Amino acid sequence: MTPPGAPAALPPETPKEALRAPGGDPSGPAKPVPRRLLGGVAAPGFFARARRHLSFLLGAVLSVLLVLGAALSLVWAPYPPAEMDIPHKLQAPSAAHWLGTDNYGRDIASQLLVGSQNSIVVGVIAVGIGLAAGVLLGCLASARRGWVEELVMRAADFTFAFPALLSAIMLGAIYGPGLVTGIVAIGIFNIPVFARITRGAANAVWSREYVLAARAAGFGPWRITLDHVLPNIASVLIVQATISFATAILAEAALSYLGLGTQPPQPSWGRMLNEAQTLMFQAPMLAVYPGVAIALSVLGLNLMGDGLRDLLDPKLSRKR
Amino acid sequence: MSVFLAKRIATFLATLAIASMLVFAVLELLPGNVAQVILGDTATPESLAALEKKLGLDQAPLQRYLGWVGGLLQGHTVDSYSYGTPTAELIVERLQVTLPLALLAMALTTVLALVLGVYAASRHNRLGDVGVMALSQLGIAIPSFWFAILLILLFAVKLQWVSAGGFPGWAEEEGGPGGVGPGLRALLLPAVALALVQAAILARVTRSSVLEVMREDFVRTARAKGLSRRATLWKHVLRNAMIPVLTIMGLQFANLITGTIVVENVFVLPGIGRLIFQAIANRDLVVVRDVVMLLVAVVVVVNFAVDVLYAFIDPRLKAADA
């Protein structure tokens, strides 16, 4: 049996690998395709090892539940999340309202379900910004070396002076609070993280013999980056993307809690916690559910990221 | 050594200078100007002109930037729009809550992380280790502001041992609620909330660092000459394992600062985080700017200090750099 979580976590790899895997490589011996890292996904035994990796399985299941929850809420939720029903306010969990209702009679379960969309959107866009720009800069630094590398790395160092949440708060204060400001701020501060990791991993690939062979065969830096560097550092990037996704969810929750992230009527876990805090004496459980949702999502993504690191690169895991 | 220090100091000063330009520029690039944003759409032209003059908007940007930085360095700042007092005064007043809170949280983090990390390493791959690691995964996943809310739920709502927030003040007055004891008590739960996540991360770093050092030859030598396991651990392993732990602690300081902003709001503590939040609500942008600049400066200073300290602990780094 295939583990339930694994396929959802892996598809980005499979098509590329399918292109590279066939034995008759048309490009000849000058471009041997190294398989160790990216190949790890499709290599025989990956699923067998994944199935035995308990924390990876748990993480994958939790992450898939998050995605499924968000997908389901696009087409169905028990109630419209913003629908008020004052006569039925602050109800205890029941068959009609699984997790009860808040002080406006809104259904908590529906708000939680629809709120998961937010977490996914924030994670995907914030990580997307960081991944796209960071990988580009990291590859550039690694391919060009010299002053380009120095410049990129100094800029990355510099960005660490601005904690992401603080910058999001500042931008929100000045350009008006909102989800977009928050996502962009979180995304920008993912760029140096990915740039550093890309450059470090890419430098290691550049020092390998097969890159030397490719250079001797006359291939330029961009060709080598696309053919050799990127496929070989993909697994490192996947792991970082998973962990950055979790960090983005945490940051969005904090921003929304402060009222600087997602704006009403769109439900968000962070804002639900803010609203619940005023009702702690009447309905303490309202302050528990959204936090559990955040914690489980972040836990799932972190476990999956750590698990992928073990599974994709056994060398790394042995060091830890 | 001097080459190393000079390089680090130069980077440090350059970082501060560029950061201040960025913070200043963010306000400059506003659509309209600061005075319009502060006063809103309903402002009369007279009040707008008065505030523009007060904020120095009639001067050239470069002049204003230099005036701002010069003022910050000497402690002279613009008056806050909503409080009517200089921002520096506001900040100093609020630091009396934030600084003790951050230090208390850092102390709790360090103690908790070292104890758990060393314990996990000494029980490597046994039940205690697995338990600590599982706990730390959970700790990393829990947002500090939610943990803060849970602490309030337990200790203020359920057990009613403490109040749900607020700060009595440090000053001890006859019949007043303030004083060092009550003040510290009010900061204890917020500090615990902040420390949980940080300690979870730091415990993992401590554990892997201790495990790494335990494989070194000098540890085997110490054991071979008859030193007990415990003595080896505390005398030889821990001292060497501290280097990466110290670096991570420096990096964590930035997280601690942003965490403080959120957690102060959960507990309604009159600190820097509460100040910036209220300033946003009041559109008091000069306060936002000056607080952000202060926090960024703190992060840069801490990173610089860790860098230098690190080199003192591990001389190999200096050699590599110089």
Describe the structure in your own words.
Chain A is mainly α and 320 residues long. In chain A, 68% of the residues lie in helices and 0% in strands. Chain A has helices spanning 6-9, 13-20, 39-42, 46-52, 54-75, 108-144, 146-159, 164-175, 179-188, 191-206, 209-216, 221-257, 269-277, 289-312, 314-319. In chain A, helix 7 packs antiparallel against helix 10. The chains are: A mainly alpha (320), B mainly alpha (322). Chain A binds chain B through residues 55, 157-158, 160-166, 169-174, 177, 246, 250, 253-254, 257-258, 260, 273, 276-277, 280-281, 284, 287-288, 290-291, 294-296, 298-299, 302-303, 320, and chain B through 11, 15, 18-19, 22-23, 26-27, 30, 37, 137-138, 140-143, 145-146, 149-150, 152-153, 157-158, 164, 208, 251, 254-255, 257-258, 261-262, 265-266, 276-277, 279-280, 285, 288-289, 292, 295-296, 299-300, 303.
What is the strand and helix layout of this fold?
The complex is a heterodimer of chains A (320) and B (322).
Chain A: H1 6-9, H2 13-20, H3 39-42, H4 46-52, H5 54-75, H6 108-144, H7 146-159, H8 164-175, H9 179-188, H10 191-206, H11 209-216, H12 221-257, H13 269-277, H14 289-312, H15 314-319
Chain B: H1 2-28, H2 34-39, H3 45-54, H4 61-74, H5 87-122, H6 127-141, H7 144-158, H8 180-214, H9 217-224, H10 229-266, H11 272-281, H12 285-313, H13 315-321
